[in-house]
Amino acid sequence: MRQLDLREYEQSGPHTLSAAERDDLREAVSSLTIEPAAGEHTAYHITPSATVGAVEIGDLSVHIQPKIGIPQLLSLACYAMGVYKPQEQRRFDFREEAALPDTLALALAAAARGAFARGLLHGYRTEEEALYAVRGRIRFDEQVRRRFGIAMPVEVRYDEFTDDITENRLVKAAVARLGEMRLRSSRARRGMGWTAAMLENVSLAEYGPRDVPDVTFDRLNEHYRGVVGLSRLILRHSAFEAQRGKVRSTGFLMDMNRLFQEFVTAALRESLRVSERVFLERNIGSLDEGREVSLRPDLTWWEGNDCTFVGDAKYKLVKPAGAPNADLYQLLAYVTALDLPGGVLVYAAGETEAASYRVRHSGKLLEVTTLDLGGTLDDVLRRVERVADRVRGLRDEARSLRPAA
User: Fold this and answer.
1) Quick one: which of 180, 189, 314, 365 is 20 to 30 A from 234 by CA?
2) Coil, helix or strand for 298?
3) Distance CA 8, CA 6 (A)
């Protein structure tokens, strides 16, 4: 298998690709820029944008390394998905492996060993079927509708205590998804084999990236939080197609723009000590009186029906000269529509410099702040506190200007 190693936002040296490989790669990772090398007919420069991960197309294996490194990428993603409990010091031991799928497989196997140490989690699952003996409750409406005048079989509903439950199905689906990729680490392959064997009697379910179910944790399944969270992460970001025409395709790809927004939202929510019901991405109505231009900021803070803070999280690469005008115009539209004194744009550090802009005639304050994603997860969360302080300040100012009831 041929391997292409790329890095986020960096142009690669020329790589030889057939026309079919070039087209398949463009279709699999639409955010890639593929340009022919000067004076070459089959060599191309490839520049990834904010999509990172790994994809295999036929005999071509492409790895896109994130700027922040794989361990940090996965730590941020797990935090954003709630895999880590608030104030919890335990972290997964994500190690810098040659490929992202191998790192995920090793982490998933380690989490599974910890979760399965006391045996597979069991739970009650409601079953409905036709039996020749009564079990549970008879479904009289279905019995009459389907078997009018016939005594047997009986339509019944009962609860079965089983290990074939959502938590275990998620883990098995994630193992199967990683198994579709060619793992290079023999330790990773062994770990996936052991996990699959433990889940032999669990149904293999297929989950699309947008159909991955959430799981509520309590004292009975709390020890599954890590392995279920990793499984949901894998299923949400894996792209699997058995065939692309005549070419087999598998992949695990993450959009850094979306990840940054989700992490900033979760970290600010924790720092501000508010729930996801009051601090979230949400529609704020329309910019115009005709209600034709809808607005949906990344960051909003609500008190009942009143929005008291608004902002956006922007990971994307921008010019060093400062935040692009379009982002500032967008923020101005938010604060104008909500009649707030100001708002905040949060960029990943290195994308722009911190700044503030006072809008003429309106007095609206547009603030640009940065969040350094380097170091440990705890380091990043400490930096989030500084962003949270400014969010509190703008919210307090908005509340002070609100007319008295």
Assistant:
1) 314
2) coil
3) 7
**DSSP one-letter code for 238:** B
The helix (H) or strand (E) run that includes residue 250 is strand 247-255
Using the 8-state DSSP alphabet, how is residue 278 labeled? T
Determine the Cα–Cα distance for residues 337 and 115; give it in Å rounded to an integer: 48
Closest C-alpha among 286, 311, 291, 293 to residue 301: 311
One-letter identity of residue 270: E
Amino acid at 25: L
Residue 376 corresponds to which tokens in the numbers above? 């440990």
Question: Between vectors from CA 61 to CA 107 and to CA 32, what angle results, nearest 5°?
Answer: 100
> Cα(393)–Cα(385) distance, rounded to whole angstroms?
12
**Do residues 366 and 331 touch, judged by C-beta distance below 8 A?**
yes
pTM of structure: 0.83
How many C-beta atoms surround the C-beta of residue 98 within 10 A? 13
Q: Give the pLDDT confidence of 319-353 residue by residue, as tens digits.
A: 555 667 889 999 999 999 999 999 999 999 876 67
Neighbours of 315 (CB within 10 A): 21
Q: 178-201 pLDDT, tens per residue? A: 988 888 889 999 999 999 999 999
pLDDT greater at residue 159 or residue 14: 14
Quickly count: other Cβ atoms within 10 Å of residue 62's Cβ: 24
